[in-house]
Structure formats: structure tokens, C-alpha cells
Amino acid sequence: MPDSRSWPTPIRALRHPNFRLYFTGQAVSTLGSWLQQVALAWLIYRLTGSAALLGVTTFASLLPQLLVGPLAGAWIDRHDKRRLLIGVQGLLGLQAIALTVLTATGLIGPTLIVLMAAVLGVLNAFDTPLRQSLLSQFVSGKEDLPNALALNAMLFNASRFIGPPLAGLLLGFTSEATCFALNALSYLGLAAGLLVIRMAPTPRAAGSTGDVFREGLTYVAAQPPIRQMMLSVLVVNLTASSYAVLLPVFAKDIFAGDARTLGWLWGAAGLGSLVGTLLLANRHALTSLVGTILACALAGGAGLLAFAASQHLALSLLAMAVIGFSITNCNVGTNILLQSLAPERLRGRVVSLYTSTRFGFDAIGGLLVGILAEQVGAPWAMASAGFLLLGYCAWLLPRQRRLARQVADAPREDG
Q1: pLDDT digits (tens, 9 = 90+) for 349-364
Q2: Where in the numbering of this chain does the Major facilitator superfamily (MFS) profile domain appear (predicted)?
């Protein structure tokens, strides 16, 4: 094993060569994904001016995580994960190419946008748990897994900080199709890294997909701290994560801006998320994450209310940074706890249940907040999400200490 003393604590997982290859390829791929996400949101609102359609498109792209994700995890655990991930990267690239061609030729419209978003959602239902569950194979020893998870999230959030402003600039000078084409090329980065990686085939679960799925579900249901953490992920993403649906409305209608304004708002949330993952990368103790997750959920609710009430772009950028910081600490902190508690043979299924909850209820929250914004306006819709999140935090507060004890006492398996 490489000498951990030669690597600073915040990036200690990079001492593993396989993780470095994955990290480099994923950096390219994630940046491309953010270019596409911002460009697609702007394309929808430019063509239709509908906040509800923004919610429908987000719903279509994320709902497969809720419906397909749990079974995808069981299917993943029965196959070689590295080979599957290479194949999924190729399919994601084809989806981006199709979106590029449709947009460049002017054939794109609301129906095709929702359809392409749904295709992306199905592919991501496999891609996300594949990447997450493979991280333990890229680092030798469980002690570096929390850091690898934090660094993986840091990549996502660094791209979230850089990608949206870059997308805004590109949209000002070129077109949405250019952003989609760049995303198609970006998938080559991760696929190339995975092809170079040398590792033994990942362990495969025995039995039918249904039996494997039920085994994972039984494990999660039998663990009280995991059930509680899943509930928190559900509420945080149903409420706080729905902000992304409304950002084009705020950028265009509240701040009278353009795609660059949208890029700055998204970039501010990305900056907050990046700071959150940098702090998580320095952590060693797992039990303290329980209190951190609750505190960040409270901050996220307050950030939603501040953003909803703000009429000044500078204050709104600050509120977005707080929201991004809070959501990241809640989601990534929970992911670190779950993967640290789950045995290796069940990790794909536990991760898939986590990701399906995270992105599935993000989809439901986005759909609901988009519909609500059509009725009462975007500020009131975002404020409603903030009040709901704060109400859940008030319910969770007296239960926090017991949850921390349960996490500390939970069995940790290596196999």
C-alpha cells in the first residue's frame, strides 16, 4: 500500500493509483455534465417560459432513480461493476450526441426535451450507484473510503462551481448545442480512465435479481440508524434540492438577467458545496457527522427563506452558497456514514437505495415546486420548501442524540 504519510490528510485517497485514474476521468466527465444541465434548463425556459415545464423535465430526469435505482443496485451487485460503468459511459455519450443533433437542427421541442431527460435519468439510475459502489475498490483499505467519497463529491461540486458560469459564457457566445456536444466528449475521460485501471473483477452476488434486491432491502430495514438517515435524505432533497428548478425563473424574472445570471446563481451554490466537501475531506470521526447533518439541514432551510425574500443579487448569491453547502453536507455526510456501515457484498444495493431516495425525491420536490411556482410565484414556492425543511429539523432535534449512539454502536463489516 502507498505510504499515507506522503499525502496530506484532505487528499489522502489520491495515494491509490486506481483512484487517481478514476478521479482524473471523473473530473472531465462531471464538468461536461454541468454544462449540459445548465444549457438544458436555459433551453427549456427560453423556448417555453414555463416554470412548470422546468419541474416536469427535472422530474423526468430524476424519477428513474426512484423507480429503477433500487433494482439497478441489485442487478449491479450481480455483475462486474467496472465493465458495466464503461458501457454506461458510452450510452451517456450517445444521449448527449442525440441532444446535440436535435438542438442544432431545430427539431428539439418540449416533448423531445422531456423524453431525452427521461433517457438520461434511466442511464443515471445505473451510473450513480455504479460509480459510488466502485470507490471502495479503487482504494486499498476501508480507512480511506470516507476521504474517497468526500473527494468524489468535491469533484462534483468543483464542477458545479466552475461549470454553470462557464456554461453561461458559452451560451452567450455560442448555443445550447455546443454545451451538449462538449458533454458528449467529456464521457471519454472517465471511460479512458476505467480502461487503464487494473483491478480484480468485483465480487458478484449470487441469486436472482429479486432475491438480491430483497436481501438489501431487509438489511436496510433492520438497521434503525440507516432508516433514519434515509428519511433525512428524503426530506432534504424533497425540499432544499428543489431550488434548482426555480433558478431560471429567478435569473430571468426576479433579477431581469440572462444565462450568465443563471450561471452565477448555480455557481454560488457550487462554491458552497465545494467548501462543504473540503471540510468533509478533513474529517476522521464518523459519529460527529450526525450533528453536522442536522445543523446543515437547519442552515439549508434558513437559506431557502433568505433566497426567497431577497431582491438583491449579492444577497441571493450568498444564500445560494449556504444552500449548496448545506445540501452537500447532508447528502455526502449521509453517504459516508452509509458506506462505512454497509458490508462490501451489500454496498451496491445500499448505495442504490440511497441514490434512489436522494434523486427520486429531488425529482418529486422539483415537480411540486414547479407546479406551486405557477400558482403562487417562485419566491413563495421556495419559501414553502424552507418552512417544511425547518419543521422536519424541529422534529429531528430531540432524536439526534439517540441517532448518534445508534451510529456509534452499529456493526461495521469488511466483507
Answers
A1: 787 788 888 887 887 8
A2: 225-415
